[in-house]
Amino acid sequence: ANGKQKEYEERYKARREEKKQDKLKVLKRTGIPVSEYKNMETKLT
Questions:
Q1: Cα–Cα nearest to 28, from 37, 19, 18
Q2: Hey, where are the domains in the chain?
Q3: Measuring CA to CA, how many Å separate 28 from each of 3, 13, 43?
Q4: Contact status, residue 24 vs residue 34, Cβ threshold 8 Å
Q5: Rounded to 5 degrees, what angle do the CA atoms 1, 5, 3 make?
Q6: Do residues 34 and 27 touch, judged by C-beta distance below 8 A?
Q7: Which of 1, 2, 14, 23 lies 20 to 30 angstroms, CA to CA, from 30?
Q8: Percent of the chain residues past pLDDT 90, beyond the cut
Q9: Quick one: the chain helix, strand, coil %, rounded to 5?
Q10: Largest Cα–Cα distance in the chain?
Q11: Residue 40: Cβ within 10 Å count
């Protein structure tokens, strides 16, 4: 079960990174500075 758990966590992290990159791409398209996005992110978490 331990190996499965690790595999799941790896996939989960990868997906989160992907989502973050997608968000950054969208923000760049809309013209929001990345610094502002980072501020928003720290407020959210």
A1: 37
A2: 2-44
A3: 38, 23, 20
A4: yes
A5: 55
A6: yes
A7: 14
A8: 42
A9: 90, 0, 10
A10: 45
A11: 13
Residue-averaged pLDDT of the chain: 84
Place of tokens 């595999």: 7
- How confident is the model over 19-37, as pLDDT tens digits? 999 988 887 888 777 787 7
* Euclidean distance between CA atoms 2 and 27, whole angstroms: 37
**Confidence check: pLDDT of 1 > 90:** no
Query: 23 — phi, psi (to 5°)?
Result: -60, -45
Q: What is the pTM of this model?
A: 0.50
Tokens of 18: 């992907």
Q: How far apart are CA 13 and CA 39, in angstroms?
A: 21
